[in-house]
From TrEMBL:
The gene is pncB. Its EC number is 6.3.4.21. It comes from the Bacteria. Transiently phosphorylated on a His residue during the reaction cycle. Phosphorylation strongly increases the affinity for substrates and increases the rate of nicotinate D-ribonucleotide production. Dephosphorylation regenerates the low-affinity form of the enzyme, leading to product release. It is an enzyme of class 6 (ligase). Belongs to the NAPRTase family. The lineage of its organism: Bacteria, Pseudomonadati, Pseudomonadota, Gammaproteobacteria, Steroidobacterales. InterPro entries: N/Namide_PRibTrfase (IPR041525), NAPRTase_N (IPR040727), Nic_PRibTrfase (IPR006406), Nic_PRibTrfase-Fam (IPR007229), Nicotinate_pribotase-like_C (IPR036068). GO terms for molecular function: glycosyltransferase activity; nicotinate phosphoribosyltransferase activity. This is Nicotinate phosphoribosyltransferase.
């Protein structure tokens, strides 16, 4: 019997919508190609899922936003009314996405107007993951997932009692990032760390829709002092928690193909974001051509306009230190900014990064697979990335080897030359 995996168009990450809005307003005629890739070796061939993926995509293309869902989105002040009106008439079109096989490899390609195909990504990844892991969805595996989630919760509860004290020279007046202050007594110990906050970023690689919801509901109930939101819009709405997300690589990569001089594409993308959101959604992604190249474009103007930066590749400590040094050079108080870490995180790694940075800057931690697919079964490392826009290739030069997805070596070589990166 057919069971639809996607039952609401809100069952996606917020940043797909926050990127769609500026694309609709600036580049409604863009043509784009998004390609699915599995980066690791699955335990059985993904090609065997082809017929089921086709069936799930057929269903996805019948869905529309309900008036209740649109009313929820309209409560987000950063969405303009014309964008909500666009979503009211939007539906995915099956002609823009194809599924095929090549040996044991599953190939999924979305090709068409960017505003119509960019949203396929999260749904395709969720569908393929759930179809793949249905073979492993046994009571024993689910109990193992619950046990591992319980261990994470215990770790967070223990952390509360052992990590929050820092010695501060006294006597003095302690000033907090929110503008308040408190008198200090000589020889006292004071807590000056920013709070630990983490979010669920696990929609794209979740074990299943049901497990994802159980995990989010459990964290929201058990550790609300630390768990502050989810990238999944449907679950944020259902459980009354914050929907988290700003931009992904595809947003900045698009500006490589819209007539902007290549060396200026990051600055153009950031400026367009500022004009779209006027101070909302102010966390910028830094690793499309590497942190060093990003910093050279992220001048005082952008440093004051954006609330913070997001890490998604490379050594997070090195990245964070570069960010803090850059803020210091610009004479920007890092306590007023936020560093968001989101690359291959788990709770222990997030806590270590928190200990390293939280007395100097606000921190946030977006944790994906380790929350939504830590079941004792090897997870898939799958992505669906923008590979072409307006008939030309786009790419990122990741700070982590192996994350680049571009089949045009000539363009990659040119991109490296422009941004002075070695192959």
């Amino acid at each position: 019997m057919f069971t639809p995996i996607i039952q609401s168009l809100l069952d996606t990450d917020l940043y797909k919508l926050t990127m769609l809005s500026p694309m609709l307003h600036r580049f409604p005629a863009n043509q784009a190609v998004y390609s699915f890739v599995c980066r690791n070796s699955p335990q059985y061939p993904l090609a065997t899922l082809k017929a089921d993926v086709e069936e799930q995509l057929d269903h996805l293309c019948t869905l529309t936003y309900t008036e209740e869902e649109l009313a929820y989105l309209a409560t987000k002040s950063f969405f303009k009314s014309d964008f909500i009106d666009f979503l009211r008439i939007f539906h995915f079109q099956r002609r823009y996405i194809s599924v095929s096989t090549e040996g044991d490899t599953l190939k999924v390609v979305a090709r068409g107007p960017q505003i119509h195909v960019m949203g396929f990504e999260i749904f395709v990844l969720s569908i393929i993951n759930e179809l793949y892991f249905r073979r492993y969805s046994t009571p024993e595996v689910l109990e193992e997932g619950r046990r591992r989630l319980a261990d994470k919760i215990l770790m967070l509860r223990d952390f509360r009692t052992q990590s929050m004290v820092v010695e501060v020279p006294a006597p003095n007046v302690l000033k907090f990032a929110n503008g308040t202050s408190a008198p200090m007594e000589g020889g006292a110990l004071y807590t000056i760390r920013h709070p630990f906050e983490f979010f669920d970023f696990g929609t794209r690689r979740r074990f299943s829709r049901d497990w994802h919801e159980e995990m989010v509901a459990t964290l929201a109930r058990e550790v609300p002092q630390y768990f502050k939101g989810t990238s999944n819009v449907h679950l944020a709405r259902k459980y009354g928690i914050a929907a988290i997300g700003t931009m992904a690589h595809e947003y900045l990569q698009t500006f490589q193909a819209v007539g902007v001089q290549l060396k200026n594409f990051q600055k153009e993308a950031l400026e367009a974001w500022v004009q779209e959101y006027r101070g909302d959604l102010g966390v910028a992604l830094t690793d499309v051509v590497g942190m060093d190249a990003f910093i050279s474009d992220f001048d005082l103007y952008f440093a004051k306009l954006f609330d913070g930066l997001r890490h998604d590749s490379g050594d997070p400590v090195i990245w964070g230190e570069k960010a803090l040094a850059h803020y210091q050079r610009l004479k920007v108080d890092a306590h007023t900014k936020r560093l968001v870490f989101s690359d291959s995180l788990n709770i222990p790694k997030a806590l270590r990064l928190y200990e390293h940075f939280s007395d100097r800057v606000q921190c946030g931690f977006g944790i994906g697979t380790d929350l939504s697919n830590d079941m004792g079964v090897p997870a898939l490392n799958i992505v669906m990335k923008l590979t072409e826009c307006n008939g030309q290739p786009v790419a990122k030069l990741s700070d982590t080897p192996g994350k680049t997805l571009c089949s045009d070596e000539t363009f990659l070589a040119y991109l490296r030359q422009v941004f002075k990166q070695a192959a």
